[in-house]
Structures are given as C-alpha cells and as structure tokens.
Amino acid sequence: MRECRVLCFLTALVLVAVHGVNGEDPYRFLTWKVTYGDIYPLGVKQQGILINGQFPGPQIDAVTNDNLVINVFNYLREPFLISWNGIQQRRNSWQDGVYGTNCPIRPGKNFTYILQVKDQIGSYFYFPSFGFQKAAGGFGGFRIWSRPGIPVPFPSPAGDFTLLAGDWFKTNHYVLRRLLDSGRNLPFPDGLLINGRGWNGYTFTVDQGKTYRFRISNVGLTTSINFRIQGHSMKLVEVEGSHTLQNTYTSLDIHLGQSYSVLVTADQPVQDYYIVVSSRFTTRVLTTTAILHYSYSSKGVSGPVPIGPTTQIASSLSQARSIRWNLTASGPRPNPQGSYHYGMIKTSRTIMLANSAPYINGKQRYAVNSVSFVPADTPLKLADYFKIPGVFSVGTISSVPTGGNAYLQTSVMGANFREYVEIVFQNWEDTVQSWHIDGYSFFVMGMDGGQWTPASRTRYNLRDTVARYTIQVYPRAWTAIYMALDNVGMWNIRSENWARQYLGQQFYLRVFSPSNSWRDENPIPKNALLCGRARGRRTRPLRAK
Description:
Elements: H1 2-19, E1 27-39, E2 46-51, E3 60-63, E4 67-74, E5 82-85, E6 110-116, E7 122-128, E8 140-145, E9 159-168, H2 173-181, E10 191-194, E11 203-206, E12 211-218, E13 224-229, E14 234-239, E15 242-243, E16 248-249, E17 251-254, E18 259-265, E19 272-280, E20 287-294, H3 314-322, E21 349-356, E22 359-360, E23 363-364, E24 367-368, E25 371-373, H4 380-386, E26 393-394, E27 407-409, E28 411-416, E29 420-427, E30 433-437, E31 442-449, E32 467-468, E33 470-473, E34 477-484, E35 489-495, H5 498-502, E36 506-512
Parallel strand pairs: 1-4, 3-8, 9-12, 11-20, 21-29, 25-27, 26-28, 28-36
Antiparallel strand pairs: 1-2, 4-6, 5-7, 7-8, 9-10, 12-18, 13-17, 13-19, 14-15, 14-16, 14-18, 19-20, 21-24, 22-23, 29-34, 30-33, 30-35, 31-32, 31-34, 35-36
C-alpha cells in the first residue's frame, strides 16, 4: 500500500509538471493488478483474468473532463492490453489500448494509462484487447457522470446499476485462440453471463415505488442479445453517450459492443422478478437470468421466464430506427444536443466497407474490402511517429469494395483532419454484423435491406438520429453513418465479433494533420512502451532542454 501511495505521488508530480494544474479537470488515480484466478461462471472451473481480484473488474466512475491515471500491473504469463470501449481519447490515440497504438504490457511489468474523458457522458466499458484475452474476463463497467450544473433530462434515480452481459465459453481463452490460429471457427457459445454469473447468479435490490437506472452493455464475443425484465417496462434515456428520446420498451436488442441506459420503476407487487438475457439471431436460443429483488420480499421468482424475440429481423430494425436523439437535452456541455446540425453539413467523400468471410491459404479469415488485417511487428502509431519504414503503408485498403480475391495485409486507410465523411457498411453475409470505431462517435443516418445506392440517402434521418460508437448491420443489408474526423490519430475500425476481429475484420484509419501541432494531437507519452522496431528509440526527454 505504501508503495502504491509513493508511486501515485510521483505520478502526480510528473502530471503537474507536464500538464500544469487545472482546477476544473481533476485527476483520479487507480492502481490495478491483473492476475489469473479460478472462476466458475457456468459451474465449471476456468482460468479467468481478474483485476484486483475481481471478475468482472472494478467499476470506473468519472465526471466529464476528469483525467484518469490508471497504473496497470501485469502479473499474467502473457502480454496484456486494456482498451476503453467508446472513450474517445481526444487528441490522444496514444492511450487507446489496442495493438495498433500501444505495445502490450509485458509479464511482470506495468504501464500507466493517462486519459481524459473529454466532453463525454454516459455508459461504457473496458476490456482486454490483446491475444483473445477478452474470452477470459478482464472487462468492467465505465460510467461518466455529468458535471454539476449540467442539466440531465430525467430525475436522479434511486440507484444506478451496471449490467455487463454476453455470451461465454467454458473453454479457456488460449485454447480458443489456438483454434482460431489453426484456421477454424469458434464453436457455439456454452451460455450467457450477467455480471460474470450464470442462471439466477446475480441480484439487484430495489425499493417499491422507486426508479432505477440500468446501464446494460453487451461484452460478449459473438452474439447479439435481448434484454428484458419480467413485468416491467423500460424507458430508454441514453445510448453510448447520447441522451435519447425517452421511448418505452418491453425488451431491447443489444448488439456486440453496444451500451444502453434505461430507467426502470419498481411499480409491481413486492416479490422477485426475472431479469432475462437471451441470444438474438441464433437458431439455438441461449438464455440466462438475474433477479430483480424487491426489498422485504419473501416471495421468490415465479412463473415462466419471459420469452423474447429470437431470429426476427424486422422488429429489431424497427426498434433501431425508433432510437432518436433528444434534441433539447444537454449532453456533456450545457448547450442542447440538437444545436449541432449534423444533417446540414456536406460530406467530403463516401467510404463503403464490405465484410466477407474468405478462406486464405486454406484457413478461415475475415476481411474488409477484400483485405484481411494482420498485425505488424510494431504498433502502427509508433511506426508512424518514428517514421519506421516497412511497417505499414497508407492506402493499403480501398475505400470501396474491390470484389477481388481476399488477401492478407496490415491495412491502413488515410483521411484528413476535419473531413466530414459518409461511411456505408455493406453486409452481404447472412449474419448480423456489429462495427465499432475507436476515437469517435458518429451519426446513424439510416439502415435498410439490400444494396446501398446514392438514392438510399433519401431515407436518411437528417434531424434527430442518435450519435453513438457501435452500430449493427443486419444480414444482407446496409447501415450508413456520418462522422466528423475531428480527432487526429491512428484509430481502429473493427468488427465487435471478437473471432472476426481476431481473424482480420478490422483496419486502421489514420486521421492526419500536417500541422504537427500539440493543438491537434498530444505528444508521445514519456512513458510510452516501445517494442518491435521501435525498441531502443526514445520518446521525449523528461525535462525540456
């Protein structure tokens, strides 16, 4: 403990020296010890990844603009990285925590992430991004609260619950990784978890008559889910940092990597009720439950588990279109969200991304515009900074589908700072896709079946679509987004299906500013880990000369 206090004190001195003192943007210090541990989420002993002995890991709580200093000690026998799903890392892709930007933390070593939750509110999560370790745990919730004085468009709830749900495999992560490396696909998941527990393994306690906020994230590997609570309706209030129109739902589809906030009023007779999560768009339906426990209830759950939708696409599409921006609500700043007229800005170009599932050299791979991503021997951001040749080339992935044979490549697409782009995700496969873009939120303009064409723009929502960071694309369908490229850096665009991501359905978008100014991008951190061909080079001197 004394060692931790001394380390935090020294870190604080460095931060003050480098960044200065800003009374409006406080610092929060966390120390995490990452270890293996025995877990039994589906009743079978497994080797899990714990953070400070916890599975899932500890909750992060922050307020808009807080600076987080997270010192991560890796006690695993393998390299480790943590990424922050939906945290935009403004001007700071150095802290993104994916292999394209960061060297993994070697066994027995540590790394201190220094990140700011600049101009963000809402519900997020963190997860291990390296070596398929997400299949072993290491994930946790991440809440960003509004600053005092910034109006929130609903009364303060009586409680705020984080619910991390997703599919799970009984097989240890390194066995699953070897399976993928051999060119085979994953088997069907063994079950679903809610906060690391199986059937009826977790309880949320409420008082009758009070309203509670549930922040639900799909932290799974391969499967969309449906969420519902027996006998209760849910009022949607926030999606991935955007306050929404407060529509009421009896169930919600939550795709891989997505996060939703709902308000639930305990307005039923005093007893216990099922909280249900089931798999979506799978022929075999997986189901798990937690308990909504009313205080002073002596009656347990009863009746059948509420049935949810299964393979129906039309209802899911209709629900997705119903999620709208609350134009009059404040976001992280006091001005209304609707003051940003995204639909009136002319886009500079259109990027179309088509996913596919090719076999390359006799092995299952996944690709974007016929390119299946392979990691380089050096993080791309470091190679870019040190101008190391031969690691990657900008333009190694086309901005439109090529239709050619798939091939392996460390694919990087170039883009200019302050462009305003249209991106179309085209899915000709029979499975739902879930796409995530690091460093940004984007506006979901429209989605529909079939082939996207320029005429599809007539069906865009130009007024009140939601801004978010992960979006689904239905089978044999398209989804279009608008995105302002206002964040310089090297940013990962990936499938949130972790097997597809691992086997190549990802690439990096290099958003470039020629000014080379700290106004546009933070300098390389002094403590940046260096590996690959960057090993032995220097970051910045501790003291300016």
